[in-house]
Specification:
The protein is of the alpha+beta class. It has 12 helices and 5 strands. About 60% of the residues lie in helices and about 10% in strands.
Length: about 400
């Protein structure tokens, strides 16, 4: 990261140095008679010289209160002008001189640059300062021309720097947007390559495993002894399972694989046993043949049950849980119901979750074209009902 320049890291010190520099500049130019200093200065002239030094010193707060600085210098200039004419208390050696301090140049810069949200107020203040410096009621071509330039240079420079900053910010934003777009394009390219590799892997491996399955089936038919036929049948069944898992995994890889490694069908008993071990009465009822569900669908059902039992531990102490798993030809249905809690949930445990468990589960279930319902039950408990297809539907690649 590039370190900011020293004058950006110490703005107050910079303004103090500028204020001191302009105090010395305006005091020196006044004493040599370049502005309002009379040929024969009196006590009033020396007092006004001190007031001028204080007015110029107000540049130290030009970033914090730019309008105040303009007002102070404008008031001093107006006072000098009135003392010269019509009061006549000060008589300058050169009546055509500009009687405002040089500090007004830097002061006129501040409102435009630092008050971007009050631009109209800044213009009004600068307009009033311009009128005071030009003193059109006692016109002089030299004083009016130089006075106008005195209050115009600062705002013009400020407008330049404002436009420059906006342009730089726009360029930085454009560069960041281009970088984000480049990142998105790279991510899309990786996703497309992943989908292409998944398709190639599916085609190659499926072809070879299909040959193995067919050959195992043929061997089972033609084998003369029972041991060979049994080995061939085992090989054929294993090959068919491998084809099913490969199809499911490739379908997930083509969409939104998240690298989940949870157990597949058959892990429900372990979850129920864990729940019972921690003191939650849990009953598992299974119907149908688990072989009807593919491993990928089984993993999603496992995650649903795991999240449901976790929520019971957090939010429903003392509740009884019933888990029903139905393996059907058309769907795998998982229903988890807990009765109303008999105890008060521990606050620390209840707050430990992210609140995104159910939405994330619904996302995974819908990813395989399933449905998930979750909500309170009439008996005061809570129910989660997931209906999943037995196999992951084949999803055509959009590549």
């Amino acid at each position: 990261m590039t370190q900011a320049r020293w004058y950006r890291r110490h703005p107050v010190a910079v303004d103090v140095v500028l204020a001191v520099a302009f105090v010395l500049l305006d005091t020196g130019t006044t004493l040599i008679g370049a502005t309002w200093w009379p040929d024969q200065p009196g006590a009033l002239a020396w007092a006004m010289l001190g007031v001028q030094a204080l007015a110029c010193a107000s540049l130290a707060v030009r970033r914090i209160a730019p309008l105040t600085v303009v007002g102070v210098l404008g008031a001093f200039t107006l006072a000098v002008t009135l003392l010269i004419s019509p009061i006549g208390a000060l008589t300058p050696a050169h009546p055509g001189n500009v009687w405002a301090p040089f500090s007004t140049v830097l002061a006129a810069y501040g409102p435009i640059f630092y008050l971007r949200n009050r631009r109209m107020t800044a213009y009004v203040a600068l307009g009033a300062l311009t009128v005071v410096i030009m003193h059109p009621w006692d016109p002089s071509v030299t004083s009016m021309t130089v006075g106008l330039l005195r209050t115009a240079v600062g705002p013009l420079v400020a407008l330049y720097f404002v436009a420059r900053r906006r342009m730089l910010l726009a360029l930085v934003e454009r560069a960041e947007r281009a970088e984000r777009e480049q990142h998105l394009l790279a991510e899309r390219a990786r996703a497309e390559e992943r989908a292409r590799l998944a398709g190639d892997m599916h085609d190659v491996v499926t072809h070879r495993v299909s040959l193995m399955v067919l050959q195992a089936g043929a061997l089972r038919v033609t084998a003369r002894d029972e041991a060979t036929r049994q080995a061939a049948e085992d090989l054929r069944v294993t090959g068919c399972q491998a084809l099913d898992e490969l199809r499911d995994l490739v379908s997930i890889l083509r969409t939104a694989s998240d690298g989940d490694h949870t157990p597949s069908v058959g892990g429900f008993e372990d979850l129920v046993a864990e729940s019972i071990a921690v003191g939650i009465p849990t009953e598992l009822i299974q119907e149908g043949d688990p072989a009807l569900a593919s491993p990928v669908v089984g993993r999603i059902a496992y995650r649903v049950l795991r999240e449901a039992l976790t929520n019971v531990r957090k939010h429903a102490p003392g509740a009884r849980v019933t888990v029903r798993v139905a393996y059907e030809t058309e769907q795998l249905r998982l229903a988890v119901h807990n009765t109303s809690p008999t105890g008060t949930p521990a606050a620390a445990l209840a707050r430990s979750g992210s609140g995104m468990g159910i939405p994330q589960l619904r996302h995974h279930v819908e990813l395989v074209h399933g449905k998930l319902r979750a909500g309170p039950s009439p008996d005061g408990g809570f129910s989660i009902d997931a209906m999943l297809p037995p196999h992951v539907p084949h999803m055509e690649s959009t590549v």
